[in-house]
Each structure stands twice: as C-alpha cells, then as structure tokens.
Amino acid sequence: MGAYLLRRLLLVIPTLLGIMIINFVLVQFVPGGPIEQIIAEVEGGGDVFQNIAGGGGDAEVATGGQETGYVGARGLPPEFIAELEKQFGFDKPPLERFLHMMWDYMRFDFGESWFRSESVVNLVLEKMPVSITLGLWSTLIAYVVSIPLGIRKAVRDGSSFDTWTSGAIIVGYAIPGFLFAILLIVLFAGGSYWRIFPLRGLTSDNWEDLSMVGKALDYFWHITLPVFASTISAFATLTLLTKNSFLEEVKKQYVMTARAKGLTEGRVLYGHVFRNAMLIVIAGFPGLFIGVFFGGSLIIETLFSLDGLGRLGFEAAVARDYPIVFGTLFAFSLLGLIIGIISDLTYVLVDPRIDFESRG
Hints:
single chain; mainly alpha; MetI-like fold; 15 helices; about 70% helix
C-alpha cells in the first residue's frame, strides 16, 4: 500500500501542473482581460464585452499611431497602458508569468485580488462557510435518507413500493437542482404561495442579538431551502447505489449459507450484508462531499442570495480577476486530487481485502 500511495502522491504533481497549464493557455486567448476592463471604465464606454461584440476593437493609440493590442484603447497615452501592463504583470512573457505564478502557488502564496484589494486566501475563507454549509448538510441528508431507502428498496425489490419510489427517484434525478430551487422559492419563499422560509443569506440581520438556541434555529431556518435544492441529485444517485450494492451482496454464497444455518432475516441483512454492501457507499463519502461542495453551487447561491465560493469564482471570471481564478483553481484541484487518494485509503480501511498494490 505504501508504494501505491507514493505513486498516487507523485502523480498529483504532473496532474496539477497539467490542469494549470491548460487553463493558463486558454486564458491567453480569452478577450476582455483586466486591462481592457480598466480601459472600458476610463473611457466610460460601458462593459468591455459590449465593445468587443459591437466591433469597438480599434486598438490604435492616437498618440504616435502605435498599436497597443487592447480593445478600446484609442486616445489613451502609451505610458498609461504600459503602467497598467506593469501593474498586472503583463509586461513579462507568458512563460515567465506562469513560472512565477506556480512558484508562488507551490509556497501557497496566492497573492491579492486585482479588483477587491484583499488577499485571495482571506476572500476564500470569507466565502467558505456558505459552500461548506451546502456541501456538508446536503451530503449528510443524502446519506441519512438514501441508505435506509436503498436498503428498503433492495429488500422489497420488485414490489409496488420499489416501483413507485424508483419513479420518484428518477423524476428527482431528472430535475436540475436550479429548477427545483426555483420551485421551492415559488412555493415556500413568498414566490406565489407561502412565505415560510427566508430568501436571502445564511442568517437574519439580528442574528448577533439572538440567544444560542435562537442562532441555531435561525441558521437552520435559512439553509433549509438551499440545502434541499442541492441535495436532490446526490440523493437519487446514492439511493440507487445502496440498493444495487445490497442486491449484489444478497446473491452471494455467504448469504445463502447464513440463511441455511437458521439465522433470522434481520440478522442476515444487518449482521452480514449491511457491512459488506456499505463499503462502497461509506468509502465514497469524501468524493460525494466534494462533488456536492463544488458542483452546481453557483446557481443555488445566486437564487438564494448566498455569497459563497460559487459566486466568488463566477464574479472573478467575469472581471478577469486572475489571482482569484487561478488561486482557487490550484487550491481546489489539489484538494480534489488529495480527496481521491483519501477515498482509496477509505476503501482499504473499511475493507482490508482490497489491495490496490496488486493492480497493474
């Protein structure tokens, strides 16, 4: 296991480097960079993307007739453009900028946001509670509901209960999270029917004045709808995974042997089958949490006015705030790769029979 773990850790480096190289190269061809953003504000011409779409890309500087290569730069002195390039580091070749960025990131120095005047680490830590709330509670609820339901469906496989719950699960899986979120808002957040739950934020304005119990109740009151909206897809997948795992284990020889010895059905299911069937479900917890943590959070956060990592990443991408874009990309890609290794280790911990060392 030690050699396998060492190989996986060594693979993290080229994988992470490949992710960063691909995204860095793609960014070089994306129009509307940070300098164009500032030029658009200086010229009062509105959004830089409107200038691009409208053909306002004449980059010739009036002074000296020099080409700056930036959209909307007509009439701006070359010294001003050069100062902007120096400020954002674009006076250096792309390769030098990339190597300097990776050297900083390897030391976990993610720099400062270009447009927020705050360090990337502080911004991520500030937005992290929202994303952790959605990811953690959604994953826990999915496990609490899906495992008993999946076991029940496996025990009653082919029954009317299994049929109608499968239909409900398929419908739930087919509905996108954002559409379900809109439905919840319309029904329960004052959209057209009842105003039971709040529509904005994680806490109320008077949260600091509430007691400990009041703070807890206020917190759960605010997260109910966004957590349910982000749980729907994970719930469907996990339920079917649990059912299929149980059905596969029930057909094995050791189950027939246990029944032949006269063990009760409950003892067979929960004393033997449950432990083996839950291996893949339990070991998949880290990966499922990361999937819920990162997947689909932008739309959910936007609909419920939650200021989390999804909105931070989207706003940084629109504003071309590259320190945030690349800093979070590096950190979360590294986290995802480490979580993959942890998932493999979890498989071995819950089932010592698994031996990754023997593969390949």
